[in-house]
Write a structure and sequence with these properties.
The chain has helices spanning 48-53, 116-148, 153-179, 184-193, 245-248, 373-385, and strands at 4-8, 11-19, 25-33, 43-45, 57-60, 62-78, 83-87, 92-97, 102-104, 109-114, 201-204, 209-212, 221-222, 227-232, 236-244, 256-259, 264-271, 281-289, 300-317, 322-324, 327-334, 337-349, 352-357, 367-371. With 386 residues, the protein is α+β, with helices and mostly antiparallel strands. The protein has a 6-stranded antiparallel barrel with strand order 6-15-18-17-16-19.
Length: 386
């Protein structure tokens, strides 16, 4: 290629006509900065009009403090501390089933049970209430007699202990009924009206989550403690990643990871202490908040495990990477000025390049070219030939 040269303002200007790499024909002018020190990088100056003709496109560079060392597909599971077994609280017959599977809100009725024990427990509470009132009257009499000297301190103490026994029993029975689904207002009405609720017992969800693994059918007789199904909270989910042993040795609990599908950071919550003999991998758990409950169990999701960069680095689309004179470079934009900057690539994942500057004294890059790099390389090569 032949170039005509002129001198203006201490710079050499080159003019040429050539067919660009993308099949476009254009005439462009390049101002090539001649450095005073040969060690300094050569820069070219291309005005905005010619950048457009050359098909150049630049994007912003993002600073990073770590880079992904591997990307592993993980399965979304429920946390062990979030799983609840739903069991029959009493013997009885299953007469209502309101959730076969799926989302359940706290307090919603899951099943309905017809149980004679439900009636008996209410009757026992009413009997306890009668005994409690009698114990209160006995203590009142014992106090009056004690004050007049007609009763001993022993009798007063016995009356106090008897009252405490019945109060404790009532409290326990009330708690049991509440756990079985009876509300505080229903218990108050029972004690006030002395009328037993002979209807079916309703088993309600104690937490919000997903109901699954149903084990019973309508009309089935069930025993106390028999498993009916499972309910797992899903406001926080766990990603279970099988990490190869050569990678897991560099990981630790609390270390940050990146979830590209969610575009957010998370942390390693647990690293298993056993190796799978078949896959030679270790299960690594990553907890992820799921407030809108859109992340579902069973979904496969990539997890990027990260390694810190001591002095920080950068990331940009992998298309910014070029090779000039056998060196890996990116072409840095600074207004009309373009500089070839040597880089050390740490990794390329999912079309994204993570890198550090080979020359740490160089100013941080703000923008790099991702399109038209072949034309830029040709311009630098033409300068070297000149």
């Amino acid at each position: 290629m032949e170039f005509a040269t002129t001198k203006r303002h201490g710079k050499t200007y080159l003019s040429s006509a050539k067919h660009l790499a993308f099949g476009m024909a254009a005439v462009f002018s390049l101002a090539v900065s001649v450095p005073a020190n040969a060690a300094e990088p050569v820069k070219i100056s291309v005005d905005s009009e010619h950048q457009q003709v050359m098909g150049l496109k630049a994007v912003a560079v993002e600073k990073v403090s770590q880079f992904p060392v591997s990307s592993i597909l993980a399965e979304v599971i429920y946390g062990l501390d979030k799983q609840h077994q739903i069991s029959a609280p009493l013997d009885g017959k299953l007469v209502g089933l309101y959730h076969i599977h799926g989302e359940v809100e706290k307090g919603q009725v899951i099943v309905e049970l017809q149980s004679p024990q439900w009636v008996e427990m209410q009757s026992e509470l009413l009997n306890t209430q009668v005994e409690l009132r009698a114990a209160q009257q006995e203590l009142k009499r014992a106090k009056a007699l004690s004050q007049s000297g007609a009763a001993s301190a022993k009798r007063l103490n016995q009356a106090s202990a008897n009252l405490a026994k019945w109060q404790s029993l009532k409290t326990m029975q009330v708690v049991v009924l509440q756990r079985l689904g009876m509300t505080g207002s229903q218990i108050d009405a029972l004690l006030k009206q002395q009328k037993i609720d002979t209807g079916n017992m309703q088993l309600r969800a104690e937490v919000a989550g997903q109901f699954y693994d149903l084990k019973v059918k309508i009309g089935e007789e069930v025993a106390k403690g028999q498993a009916l199904g499972a309910l797992s909270e899903d406001d926080v989910m766990v990603l279970d990643a099988p990490v190869p042993t050569d990678i897991v040795k560099n990981l630790q609990e609390g270390q940050a990871v990146f979830l590209p599908e969610l575009n957010r950071m998370a942390q390693i919550s647990h690293i298993h202490n056993q190796v799978n003999p078949t896959t030679q991998s270790v299960d690594v758990h990553v907890r992820v908040d799921n407030p809108d409950r859109t992340i579902k169990a069973g979904k496969m999701m990539p997890v990027q495990f990260l390694q810190p960069l001591k002095n920080g680095g950068f990331k940009a689309p992998a298309t910014a990477l070029s090779v000039l004179d056998g060196e890996r470079v990116v072409y840095v934009q600074n207004g009309p000025e373009i500089q070839a900057a040597k880089v050390e690539v740490q990794t390329i994942q999912d079309g994204v390049m993570y890198f550090i500057m080979a020359d740490q004294s160089m100013a941080e890059p703000k923008q790099v070219f991702i399109q038209g790099t072949a034309a830029i390389k040709a311009a630098f090569s033409a300068d070297e030939a000149e």
